[in-house]
């Protein structure tokens, strides 16, 4: 039905806003004049996903933490659910992944940017006591924060909410109840009926691409592009790499995420990598997915 992403600095009041939104939605859904579908309001948080604050101390810990959060979000997305994601959500690539998952589930989306100055966040953080971040982690999260923008589709519609102002509850409600539902992205277009052995094709193709890419990086560690072999690509394709070293664990994580989205889509209506489940089309879909996550698409 809907996915609402809460984003902001650490200790900026995101959980408070998520709780306020949840209570407001439940109130609207229980009003006598409400004649829409029966909906459940679910808040997915780091805590509910068993992601402790120490997860953000290093990238090695953070990646599986985000995977756990993303898995819970995927399970929550349904036609009878309003999902509120109460987490840091400070990386625009991760917000894009959630946006793609929402479009796969034919859910409306909205982003709420909770705005508080760093000094106010520090003040609140110091009052937390034992459940706070490490000082270095807290400052790192502020420094690395990628602010949502209404100019990009995955953050829109965007509601910017200063910490000392009342939330625009009604506007957010209208966005998730009456707003447009975006069609799936080009990497996950609709297909009415899937052919047999789709899962085998999916896993074999992504595994082959990962293995070829790792072999390429071992031979050319400074490379910024990867010429895709054909097969599995139907024709010569160029994968643009991020300006850092991509390792095995990252590729395995992204492979699992891509396959999870495709498998869920297959079970709920046959949405595939690029409209079909052939080896070549899955390869193109996976390449597009990687470039979208890495923000390297040309």
From TrEMBL:
<dbReference type="GO" id="GO:0006357">
    <property type="term" value="P:regulation of transcription by RNA polymerase II"/>
</dbReference>
<keyword id="KW-0547">Nucleotide-binding</keyword>
<dbReference type="InterPro" id="IPR027417">
    <property type="entry name" value="P-loop_NTPase"/>
</dbReference>
<comment type="similarity">
    <text>Belongs to the KTI12 family.</text>
</comment>
<comment type="subunit">
    <text>Interacts with the elongator complex.</text>
</comment>
<dbReference type="Pfam" id="PF08433">
    <property type="entry name" value="KTI12"/>
</dbReference>
<dbReference type="GO" id="GO:0005524">
    <property type="term" value="F:ATP binding"/>
</dbReference>
<dbReference type="GO" id="GO:0006400">
    <property type="term" value="P:tRNA modification"/>
</dbReference>
<keyword id="KW-0067">ATP-binding</keyword>
<dbReference type="InterPro" id="IPR013641">
    <property type="entry name" value="KTI12/PSTK"/>
</dbReference>
<protein>
    <submittedName>
        <fullName>Uncharacterized protein</fullName>
    </submittedName>
</protein>
């Amino acid at each position: 039905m809907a996915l609402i992403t809460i984003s902001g600095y650490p200790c900026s009041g995101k959980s408070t806003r998520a709780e306020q939104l949840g209570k407001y939605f439940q109130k609207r859904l229980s009003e006598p004049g409400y004649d829409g579908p029966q909906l459940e309001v679910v808040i997915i948080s780091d805590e509910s996903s068993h992601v402790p604050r120490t997860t953000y101390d290093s990238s090695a810990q953070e990646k599986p933490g985000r995977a756990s959060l993303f898995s819970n979000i995927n399970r929550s997305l349904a036609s009878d659910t309003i999902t509120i994601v109460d987490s840091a959500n400070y990386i625009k690539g991760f917000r894009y992944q959630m946006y793609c998952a929402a479009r796969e589930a034919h859910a409306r989306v909205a982003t709420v940017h909770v705005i508080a100055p760093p000094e106010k966040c520090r003040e609140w953080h110091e009052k937390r006591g034992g459940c706070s971040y490490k000082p270095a982690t807290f400052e790192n999260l502020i420094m690395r924060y990628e602010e949502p923008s209404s100019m990009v589709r995955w953050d829109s519609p965007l509601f910017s909410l200063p910490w000392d102002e009342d939330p625009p509850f009604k506007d957010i409600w209208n966005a998730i109840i009456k707003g447009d539902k975006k069609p799936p992205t080009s990497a996950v277009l609709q297909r009415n009926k899937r052919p047999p052995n789709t899962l085998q094709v999916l896993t074999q193709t992504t595994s082959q691409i990962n293995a070829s890419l790792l072999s390429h990086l071992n031979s050319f560690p400074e490379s910024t592009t990867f010429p895709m072999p054909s097969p599995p690509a139907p024709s010569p394709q160029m994968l643009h790499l991020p300006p850092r070293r991509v390792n095995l664990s990252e590729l395995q994580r992204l492979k699992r995420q891509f396959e999870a989205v495709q498998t869920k889509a297959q079970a709920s209506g046959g949405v595939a990598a690029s409209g079909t489940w052939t080896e070549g089309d899955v390869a193109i879909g996976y390449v597009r997915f990687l470039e979208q996550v890495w923000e390297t698409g040309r």
